[in-house]
């Protein structure tokens, strides 16, 4: 939920900015028409009403199409998540289908009426003049400053100065690209974090598990059975290392739920379970040390360094907590050595052999060979728990990141299209005095490239900050703390490349309108109003 909320907020902000930018830009681009309407007798109220209807009619169609498309896009994601979490059928709530289009229509009306009111208060002559030639005071200084950059082609300097003509629109576009770049940074970082969670787990580090018997309940392995399994694992090609595992449960004084316990028979750090703080327990017979998860610390009111008394039947043992492990879930968990476990449960015997494989080794193929060597008296399995859940979440993150990036690119496309419409006559003049289609394309792309570059530089730190803020919330929602390795997922070269995300969004969004401007004939551009 935390990362879905973060993506949702980003998408809502971008959507609001684009709607306001589209509607206000369309009204501003029609300022000349407003002047003409006033010249033939329209009152300011009639002008505002006409433009309110002008933007509300396509907005109504857009809302209807958007609701349908939104539901169609939601269906496959909801089906996947319903299957993963086994919660039945999931659908988009009816109130969402009603409230979202209503809010979009209200936003459209506000975005269109405000600039229309401003234009409606102008005189007919002022409106016509403003529409034909936007106030030069905004861009005069920028054009003069850009002209001093003699090392750059004139087509580029003209493009660099263009954003100053409409500062409000430029700022809105810049914010849209910032949120788009932040979403890309956040999505990539979150995907890397979840991949690291999956990679740094016992199921990934030790994917093969061998037990006695063929049922679901794994009985304890006798000494002879342990020797048999060890001999097969040692002789099996592809065995990297292995360790025994013994599972148990302990009562916690004052707690209704028991704590699950795992005793590894070898170096516990090889299990792949990450440490949040502290160290792993000592395997020395005299050391009564345990590592616990965050929920254990929360339920018992203890911390790393505290002592705690464990109860197993009539046996009690006071142990020292030496580390906090990263293990999510709704059950308190602890890890201890076989020697410590035997002091609480003298008859405890290993139940599993956990096996690590070299990189590139097929866990299923290895499991089949071990099963054939051990026979039906033993059971070898490949445990890849949570793979489906991780896949569903990563797919959702990817889709949301792509959607937000596309929306941000559409915001840039809208800005450039409005800019070209306003400057069509100027572009015709440039073409008449010798500007080539390639130079026209370069000029238009340059008009948003600088905005996109600055937005990317700002958006990357914003995305990193959002990642660092959301990951702890996600861990807390899973009843756990988190190791710092889950935050340090960005390499320097990744940050540099992500810094160019804003520039890429701006260029891709501008290419369509820029291509149209480059292909437009000189005569047609000169006749444009």
Question: What is the structure about, briefly put?
Answer:
The chain has 529 residues and is α+β, with helices and mostly antiparallel strands.
Q: How big a fraction of the residues is strand?
A: 5-15%
Task: Describe the global form.
Answer: elongated
Radius of gyration: 32 Å
Name the helix and strand elements from N-terminus to C-terminus, one letter apiece: HHHHHHHHHEHEEEEHEEEHEHEHHHHHH
What's the total number of strands?
10
Assembly context of the chains: single chain
Bin the helical content. Answer: 55-70%
Unreliable runs? none
Number of helices: 19
| Ends apart, CA distance between termini | 50 Å
Average predicted confidence as pLDDT: 82
* Main sheet summary: 10 strands, mixed
Structural class: alpha+beta
Word description of this protein:
The longest helix is centred in the first third of the chain and has 42 residues, at 44-85. Strand 2 (241-250) and strand 3 form a beta hairpin. With 529 residues, this protein is α+β, with helices and mostly antiparallel strands. Helix content is 62%, strand content 12%. The protein is built from 19 helices and ten strands. The mean pLDDT is 82. The chain is elongated. Strands 1, 2, 3, 4, 5, 6, 7, 8, 9 and 10 form a ten-stranded mixed beta sheet that branches.
Topology (elements, then pairings):
Elements (H helix, E strand, L loop, with lengths): L1 H28 L1 H9 L4 H42 L8 H27 L3 H9 L4 H11 L6 H8 L5 H33 L2 H4 L2 E5 L10 H13 L5 E10 L8 E6 L10 E4 L10 E5 H7 L6 E6 L2 E11 L7 E4 L1 H7 L7 E5 L6 H12 L3 E5 L4 H36 L1 H9 L4 H41 L14 H8 L1 H19 L2 H6 L2
Parallel strand pairs: 3-8, 5-7
Antiparallel strand pairs: 1-9, 1-10, 2-3, 2-9, 4-7, 5-8, 6-7
């Amino acid at each position: 939920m935390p990362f879905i909320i973060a993506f949702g907020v980003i998408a809502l902000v971008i959507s609001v900015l684009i709607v306001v930018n589209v509607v206000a830009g369309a009204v501003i681009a029609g300022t000349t028409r407003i002047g003409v309407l006033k010249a033939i007798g329209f009152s300011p109220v009639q002008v505002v009403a006409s433009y309110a209807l002008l933007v509300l009619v396509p907005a109504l169609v857009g809302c209807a199409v958007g609701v349908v498309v939104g539901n169609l896009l939601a269906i496959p994601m909801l089906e996947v998540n319903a299957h993963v979490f086994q919660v039945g059928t999931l659908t988009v709530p009816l109130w969402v289908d009603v409230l979202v289009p209503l809010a979009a229509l209200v936003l459209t009306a506000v975005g269109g009426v405000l600039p229309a009111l401003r234009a409606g208060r102008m005189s007919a002559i002022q409106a016509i003049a403003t529409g034909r030639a936007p106030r030069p005071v905004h861009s005069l200084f920028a054009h003069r400053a850009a002209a001093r950059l003699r090392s750059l082609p004139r087509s580029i300097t003209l493009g660099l100065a263009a954003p100053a003509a409409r500062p409000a629109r430029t700022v809105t576009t810049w914010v849209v690209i910032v949120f788009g770049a932040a979403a890309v940074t956040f999505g990539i970082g979150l995907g890397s974090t979840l991949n690291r969670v999956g990679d740094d787990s016992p199921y990934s580090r030790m994917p093969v598990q061998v037990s006695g018997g063929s049922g679901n309940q794994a009985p304890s392995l006798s000494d002879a059975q342990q020797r048999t399994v060890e001999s097969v694992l040692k002789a099996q090609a592809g065995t990297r290392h292995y360790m025994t595992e013994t599972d148990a449960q302990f009562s916690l004084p004052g707690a209704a739920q028991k704590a699950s316990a795992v005793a590894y028979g070898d170096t516990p750090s090889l299990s792949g379970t990450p440490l949040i703080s502290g160290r792993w327990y000592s395997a020395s017979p005299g050391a009564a040390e345990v590592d616990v998860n965050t929920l254990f610390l929360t339920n018992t009111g203890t911390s790393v360094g505290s002592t705690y008394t464990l109860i197993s039947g009539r046996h009690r043992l006071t142990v020292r907590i030496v580390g906090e492990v990263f293990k999510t879930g709704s059950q308190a968990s602890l890890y201890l050595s076989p020697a410590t476990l035997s002091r609480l449960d003298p008859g405890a015997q290993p139940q599993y052999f956990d096996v690590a494989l070299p990189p590139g080794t097929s866990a299923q193929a290895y499991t089949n060979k071990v099963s054939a060597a051990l026979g039906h008296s033993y059971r070898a399995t490949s445990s890849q728990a949570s793979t489906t859940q991780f896949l569903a979440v990563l797919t959702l993150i990817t889709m949301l990141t792509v959607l937000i990036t596309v929306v941000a690119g559409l915001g840039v496309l809208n800005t450039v299209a409005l800019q070209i419409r306003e400057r069509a006559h100027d572009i015709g003049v440039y073409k008449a005095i010798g500007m080539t289609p390639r130079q026209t394309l370069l000029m238009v792309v340059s008009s948003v490239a600088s905005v996109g570059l600055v937005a990317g530089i700002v958006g990357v730190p914003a995305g990193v900050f959002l990642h660092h803020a959301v990951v702890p919330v996600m861990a807390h929602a899973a009843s756990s703390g988190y190791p710092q390795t889950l935050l340090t997922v960005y390499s320097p070269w990744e940050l540099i490349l992500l810094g160019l995300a804003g520039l890429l969004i701006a260029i891709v969004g501008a290419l369509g309108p820029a291509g149209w401007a480059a292909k437009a004939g000189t005569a047609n551009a000169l006749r444009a109003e």
